[in-house]
Amino acid sequence: MSGSQLPSVWINELTWQEVDAYLRRESRIVLLPAGTTEQHGPAGPCGLDTYVAIALAEDVARRSGVLVAPPLWYGDSSHHGAFPGTITLRTETLMLVVRDVCRSLARHGFDRIVIINGHKGANLPALTSAVRNLHEEELPQVLFAVADPLHLARSVAARIKDAREHHSGELELSEIYHKFPHLIRTDRLTHEAIDFDGIFGGFVGNDLFGPGPDGVEVVWSSREQRAFTADGSFTPSAGVSADKGKRYHDHMVDRLCQFVDWLRSYRGPIGRVPQPAEAPR
Ligand SMILES: [Zn+2]
Fold first, then answer.
1. DSSP state of 113
2. C-beta of residue 173 within 8 angstroms of C-beta of residue 43
3. Which band of pLDDT confidence, cut at 50, 70 and 90, is reported for residue 18?
4. Is 208 helix (H, G, I), strand (E, B) or coil?
5. What is the pLDDT of residues 92-125, one digit of tens each?
6. What's the gap in Å between 168 CA and the centre of ligand 1?
7. N or C: which end of the chain has fewer CB within 10 A?
8. Which range marks the domain in which residue 56 is found?
9. How far is the CA of 71 from the centre of ligand 1 (A)?
10. How many structural domains does the chain have?
């Protein structure tokens, strides 16, 4: 049974028998949205990164007929922790949670697990390391992948946006304004930007989708962040629009649907994929 023939693409809205039917008929692909609950400046809700992951996963699942696991609402956000509303996991906790969720999915036969991250660079090290270890040590039969706007939108982001894009920037707010317009405080959008070069000596780029310096990853604490950004926003958001959000979002959904198509035909580097009868129950 394809996910599109079931009452929902969300595992949390299905019965176990409906999930079982999907596992017997489909190619056992599942999407896992991963986000954060962290401050997103004066105009964005604290759950913005999770809404990004939810929107991408749900639209891909509906079009491709695959299932989605319940989203991870918490991520690696300690550097935003000086702003109220931020709720963070420690990096090692996030890795443990991801491993347990993936173990549970794999136990019942999901053998292609695609994490869809909405938090860009700050979640990626934990997510990628967690599943790389799991694949190496426990679940060699499962193909793991980690998708993120940083990579999915690489070719189009610069053409869509009008400003530099960093935390709480024009593109991520536009995507949520397109998908969940009531969540963006359009009267609180800002032209303000933090002075990256003044703060980081020219070693940290100020545009996640633009040209940057030959750089160094400089680590900062929540207290330092609160000192260098008064309202939590890093780059201007005044140019937010539903049209920009739709173009950015649709491109990423298209690309992820292509990835799901490829996953369906994937036979693995050793030439075969376990058949349903062999899947661990
Ligand atoms: Zn964000």
1. E
2. yes
3. very high
4. coil
5. 999 999 999 999 999 999 999 999 999 999 999 9
6. 6
7. C
8. 15-267
9. 15
10. 1
With respect to residue 277, please indicate whether it lies within any of the assigned structural domains: no
CA 172 / ligand 1 centre spacing (Å): 7
Rounded CA-CA distance 87/67 in Å is 27
Give, as residue ranges, everything with CB less than 5 Å from ion ligand 1: 49
Question: Can you give the CATH number for the domain in which 142 is found?
Answer: 3.40.50.10310
What backbone torsions phi and psi does residue 183 show, to the nearest 5 degrees?
-90, -15
Query: 3-class DSSP state for residue 2?
Result: coil
Collect all residues with Cβ–Cβ distance below 8 Å to 93 and sequence separation of at least 6.
none
In a domain, 131, yes or no: yes
Question: What residues form DSSP beta bridges with 33?
Answer: 116
Contact 176, 267 (CB under 8 A): no
Residue 47 CA to ligand 1 center (angstroms) comes to 9
Return all residues near 44 (Cβ < 8 A) that are at least 6 apart. 168, 172, 173, 176, 183, 184, 185, 237
Q: How far apart are CA 148 and CA 121, in angstroms?
A: 9
pLDDT of 273 higher than 90: no
The strand pairing partners of 68, in sequence order, are 10, 31
| pLDDT digit string, tens, across residues 63-82 | 999 999 999 999 999 999 99
273 within domain boundaries: no
Confirm whether 196 is domain-assigned.
Answer: yes
Cα(110) to ligand 1 centroid in Å equals: 29
- What is the residue-wise DSSP string for 144-168? EEEE-HHHHTTTTHHHH-SS---TT
User: Side chain identity at 20, as an amino acid letter?
Assistant: D
Which residue bears the tokens 């793991």? 144
CA of 151 to the centre of ligand 1 (A): 15
Ligand 1 centroid from CA 6, angstroms: 31
What is the CA 229 to chain-centroid distance, rounded? 24
